[in-house]
Amino acid sequence: MSLKGKIVFITGASAGIGAATALAFAAEGARLLLAARRAGKLAEVASAALERGAEAVHTISLDVRDRQAVQQAIGALPAEWAKIDVLVNNAGLSRGLEKLYQGNVEDWEEMIDTNVKGLLYVTRAVVPGMVERGRGHVVNLGSTAGELTYPNGAVYCATKAAERAINDGLRQDLLGTPIRVTTVDPGMVETDFSLVRFHGDQQRAAKVYQGIHALTPEDVAEVIVWAANRPEHVNIARVLLTPVQQANSLLFHRES
Ligand code: NAP
Description:
By secondary structure, the protein is α/β, with parallel strands linked by helices. It has a single domain (7-241), classed as NAD(P)-binding Rossmann-like Domain (Rossmann fold). The protein is 43% helix and 14% strand. The longest helix has 29 residues, at 105-133. The relative contact order is 0.14. The model has no long low-confidence stretch (mean pLDDT 98).
């Protein structure tokens, strides 16, 4: 399947895995719909994507937690952008790393609202059009955290376990249509993820990656584009990828 000219909608495209995914699809000549809250960062990714070979780029300032804004943004897309071929549900975050019984409830709500409800809102807004057109592919970002809970991360892990259940349910509910559904589940990827988790504490964030050759956002982007680029009768249900120094969400080998 050629991705040239295909409309690819990526949420959380202003940084990390989402930005790298935008550039990887750009190199295939796709048309990119890029969404996130930080318009300035999105504009930078958009111009890099055009340089990389994207056929066209359209950016949307969007908070996926805002159900009405999501519906409005998808509903108001100009005709030439409305027929989304590939949806990458990537917007997501972790907040805090504490024992559950001491956790910050605002952090929990932000994770659940973004990683679970936001993903659902975007999916609900985009997938009916795919079904109507008889064409489409949904790629969700899961995590090793979704298959094995780690200490102090119960709520983030729960959001990624929910992503996995939603991914499987969506694939079942789309059976009989040509729409494909994939979850890409990375282990440790070096992005702003830990900086966001620790509310901007750079020292604490840097420690997460100490002594580990982590995945890069480009490693993950490559898998997403590969899954989207399979022949139309092939559905990649799930890809789990980790750094070699990571066995699962609990076990790492750190070089000292
Ligand atoms: P990142 O560098 O912090 O990027 C997160 C992206 O999500 C940003 O573009 C951010 O954009 C966007 N975002 C966050 N909240 C949003 C909201 N309410 N509405 C719209 N966009 C929002 O983190 P990342 O590592 O690339 O994470 C991307 C995805 O991969 C997440 O789903 C994460 O759970 C998953 N993942 C990450 C890792 C890892 O180790 N890094 C491992 C497994 C899975 P704005 O702030 O501009 O809105």
